Amino acid sequence: MTQPLSGFTVVENDSFVAAPSACLALSQMGAEIIKIDPLKGGPDIDRWPITAEGRSIYWGTLNRGKRSVAIDLRSEEGQELAQSLITATGEDPAKTGIFITNNVGRSFLTDDVLRAKRDDLIHVKVQGSADGGPGVDYTVNAETGIPGITGPAESPRPANHALPAWDLLCGQAAVTAVVSGLLQRSTTGQGTYAEIALKDIALSAVANLGWYTEALQPAGEREKHGNHIFGTFGTDFTTSDHRSVMITAITRRQWQALVESTGMTAVVEALQTALGIDLSQEEARYAQRETLEALFKPWFAARTLDQVTAELTGSGVLWAPYRSIGEVAREAAGTSGAGGSTASGADGAGAGVIRGLASEQLGDMLVGANPIRFDGEYLSGEQPTVLGEATHEVLSEKLGLTQTELGRLSDSGVLNS
To answer: Is the pTM of this model over 0.85?
Structure first.
């Protein structure tokens, strides 16, 4: 299918997760992404995970499918080149003039400076906090209160989630801001300046789940409860071959399926009678979560993971085995075409959300396609990105610089050679 943003050009100047993940998503939907980088790369150019040779898998994965233009952004000429790339109209002005950034302290890239050069600019800025203060996922997460209810129930220490959830949500909010800006410009001719604070993303998300309102109720703040699901029944169990599985029973049907599949119907009925409760009700299951955990624990402990799989598959029980990152990677490598080729050619049609991508610098990579399926297909087709590799090509193509001009800029140190 034709990618929905095919023909659009987005310029980015950023680092770390939120803004680069937004531009990766836009790239997967067909947009051309021009990434303006400092000559030696941004602060995340060497961030872990890294290859044995010390190259950043992190940077290479988040920034693939982009055209990297390396410029000395401390020089006046370099700053003017960056401004020109951002505000260039191209052959179709409706599909250019889109800029995403999270830069701090670069006065030549502020909205008023750029908008003076192009008033219909769609400018999206990712920030730490709404007042302009710093913040990253780890510090923002600490301020939400979530680490205080995460982790083992017996541990008094807060536990940060390993996944940078707020960064990733912020990236998708930036995509929404771009698409909203395009819609406004197409209907009114006006540009937009959208600011998205990482801290706002986190606080808004938690508030919209009702968790802050809950803390003001008579029962007070929620306590840690490990892997138990809040407000219903669900937790982890260990099999006889020392594997772990997650069991959930959120709906009545799921609860009934769990009871019947484990042969606990009579026991559960007796428990309900003895306690005078109805375990088909979520709140009752949650109140009795530790009792129910003890009730089902022997069933899982007596079976291997293969046996659990055989008995629960197709039963209506909502469950999943715990897998390590390595297990997921090895399985994906066996089915995605990793090992030097993509699984499905340039357009990604027919492949799953994880596929292989060969890179001269990073070797065989496992990367994720855009999770939105258009007409049943994941969108992918990106290529590896090398810092500064597209500098001369992009400046010639977008700004009309001649080889002589490019050579002079390289000799003077404004561009990479």
So the answer is: yes
